Amino acid sequence: MRVGIGYDIHRLVPDRPLRLGGIEVPSPVGLLGHSDGDVLLHAICDALLGAAALGDIGEHFPDTDPAYKDADSAALLIVALGKVRTAGLRPVNLDANILAQRPRLAPHKAAIRARVAELLALAPDCVSIKARTHEGLDAVGRGEAIAAHAVVLLDQPPRAQGES
Known about the structure:
The protein is an alpha+beta fold and about 160 residues long.
């Protein structure tokens, strides 16, 4: 078993869609990033890669590479998950926090959870998505940014009989 921790934060800006957990959340502001800025999926990528000792999201998908400009973070997560599986590991469960003062995320948590579970090929009961505010403190609390924390557990699947 291996545990990985991921974190990401992006500034909120006008005229960008808000993508969280692979879904679009209705909002007058979105996350600024080289890719689509999905802080939750970025944190999950880092947790997966970290648990497998494969580096971090910036090493695999650098923001200096034009190939990742406006990239769909779900596609990046699928690539990161493939690297984890190639290393002989698979996710068992995920626990994540989205830290946002605005917009209100409670109505979207079930859809985010379902999409993240689908991306990780996990049962929904193996994925926990929580939303928190920062009670008006710091950039997140002032509604200037959204952050996410993710913790993932990986294990090594049992080998089939006769495999070495």
